[in-house]
Amino acid sequence: MTAYDAIVLAGGAARRLGGIDKPGVRVGGRALLDRVLAACEGAARTVVVGGRRPTARPVCWAREEPPGGGPLAALDAGVRRADAATVLVLSADLPFLGTETVHRLIEALDVSGREAALLTDAGGRDQPLVAAYRTEPLRRELALLATEYGSLSGLPLRLLSQELDLARVDAGPLASFDCDTWEDISTARARIREHGTVLDEWITAVKAELGIELDVDTHALLDLARDAAHGVARPAAPLTTFLVGYAAAKAGGDGPAAVAEAARKAAALAVRWADEAADEETDTDGAGAKRDDTG
Q1: 268 contact partners, CB below 8 Å, separation of at least 6
Q2: How far is CA 151 from CA 66, 77, 115, 131, 139, in A?
Q3: What's 26-53 look like in SS3?
């Protein structure tokens, strides 16, 4: 994929949230800003425009002049710190943005040959803060707007997008969902806990919290836990998976392969335990039948 820098806009007054630090609000146990940073982890450089705060991974910081000058002023501050010929521009309040959407935007910009590729939401509306831009045309239009209006402060985003040659990328149902109100945040938190997604969300959150970038087969580990619980005892499930992780870490080498090998060995052991238990039941039943016949 084409190399790109990322610009994440993390300022704003968040008036509809009572003026709190919106990028720091947690959804699924992770700050909104950290969730967006995870989606653009492939960026060569990530510039966050806004007040400094702890982040899950290293970033460069920038600030619009004057602070609170709006999205175009913030975008201008961010693009001044970018080096790549392509920049990904994101707002910091996108809880469901994933790397697959980022890849689609960068690819659409490459294939189309246009100056920007914007995500469109389910209603067909352009999302200029979920978009990939060619850096030089973006700088050009920002400079022209600053000259025309005397300042970028307070100008609406549509002034930028209407001047660029655009490609559009249809969004999934949640890719462009942003959190402007407490109701939005409640909706996001509820969706995180839906049955079909909660496990992946939890594993991602745990890996982020522990600083682990290991991509393992969670289904294999769940199968192992099930076999251990069934063939040995329920408490064996979490203890076995812990020991598999410990053994993989101790083995070193390729992390996912080490986990897979340790899980394979433990699963085979759990099956042997279950087989022995089944044999014992068969032997006991057989002995009982013999006693009944001779009684």
Answers
A1: none
A2: 10, 13, 23, 23, 14
A3: EECCEEHHHHHHHHCCCCCCEEEECCCC
Distance CA 236, CA 213 (A): 26
DSSP for 90-150, written as a single string:
EES--TT--HHHHHHHHHHHHHH--SEEEEE-TTS-EEEEEEEEEHHHHHHHHHHHHHHHS
Torsion sign (Cα): 122, 161, 89, 106? positive
* Nearest to 164, CA basis, from 198, 207, 114: 114
Per-residue model confidence (pLDDT) at position 151: 94
- Residue-wise pLDDT for 139-176, tens only, equals 999 999 999 999 999 999 999 988 899 999 998 778 99
Tally of CB atoms within 10 A around 12: 19
